[in-house]
Design brief:
By secondary structure, this protein is α/β, with parallel strands linked by helices. The protein has helices spanning 12-24, 35-41, 61-64, 82-90, 103-116, 151-162, 170-177, 186-204, and strands at residues 4-8, 28-32, 49-53, 73-77, 95-98, 125-128, 131-134, 139-142, 145-148, 167-169, 209-212, 216-219. Strands 2-1-3-4-5 form a five-stranded parallel beta sheet, with helices on both faces. The radius of gyration is 20 Å and the shape is elongated. It is built from eight helices and twelve strands. The chain folds into two domains: 4-116, Rossmann fold (3-Layer(aba) Sandwich), CATH 3.40.50.2300; 125-219, Winged helix-like DNA-binding domain superfamily/Winged helix DNA-binding domain (Arc Repressor Mutant, subunit A), CATH 1.10.10.10.
Length: 223
């Protein structure tokens, strides 16, 4: 399952901008517009990361932060005082970005946090569109036909099959395979996916992976 990020910000424009950017990276999002609403949501939801503004109606960000346990929090604030930043980091924040911020920087900081918290364990076999992927033995099969995969190819195909039917960003793929393989970069990702496409084409005679310009890739569903 894709990572879920809670956006806690009463500025609708900033929240919408963040939600759109995170969706392009294939993150799921959850919104709260006040510290009080966020506290209530956290009683029944367990996001993988929280983006927290400080100037909030109800509970402020400073008041909400100590109530958050076992979830990395990136504070977003216009306050630039160093002692204030230090106090928030010591109070439990995982990171701090100053508004206004660059989206690329924030997305990179999110990736860094997720590298510290591995994805939950997944099934060793994954099925999608008539294909079966064995992530332990590293092969993909259809019927009685089978193709062996490299470790990197297997990790990439796992992410794509788990997200069958929807586009997924390049950086999101790289983030999710970071623990499984160290040899894949954004430059080499395209070649790895080209190799996977050829193996799937030999198995089924069908093309399963579509490149989406400016976004990433899409594992297409076949009946």
């Amino acid at each position: 399952m894709n990572r879920q990020i809670m956006i806690v910000d009463d500025d609708i424009h900033i929240g919408n901008m963040l939600e759109e950017a995170l969706a392009k990276e294939n993150y799921r999002t959850l919104r709260a517009y006040s510290g009080t609403e966020a506290a209530m949501l956290l009683e029944k939801e367990s996001p993988d990361l929280i983006l927290l503004d400080l100037m909030l109606p109800g509970l402020s960000g400073e008041e909400l932060l100590p109530k958050i346990r076992s979830i990395p929090v990136i504070v977003m604030s216009a306050k630039t005082d160093i002692s204030h930043k230090v106090n928030l980091l010591l109070a439990g924040a995982a990171d701090y970005v100053t508004k206004p911020f660059e989206l690329k920087e924030l997305l990179a900081r999110i990736v860094v946090q997720f590298r510290k918290t591995p994805q939950p364990s997944r099934d060793k076999t994954i099925k999608a569109s008539g294909l079966l992927l064995d992530t332990e033995l590293m092969f993909v099969s259809m019927g009685d036909k089978q193709a062996t995969l490299t470790k990197t190819e297997c990790a990439i195909l796992e992410v794509l099959m788990l997200n069958a039917g929807r586009p997924i960003g390049k950086s999101s793929i790289l983030d999710q395979i970071a623990d499984a393989t160290l040899d894949c970069t954004e430059r080499s990702l395209k070649q790895h996916i080209s190799n996977i496409r050829k193996k799937l084409l030999a198995l089924s005679g069908m093309d399963y992976i579509e490149g989406i310009y400016g976004i990433g890739f899409h594992f297409m569903k076949h009946e």
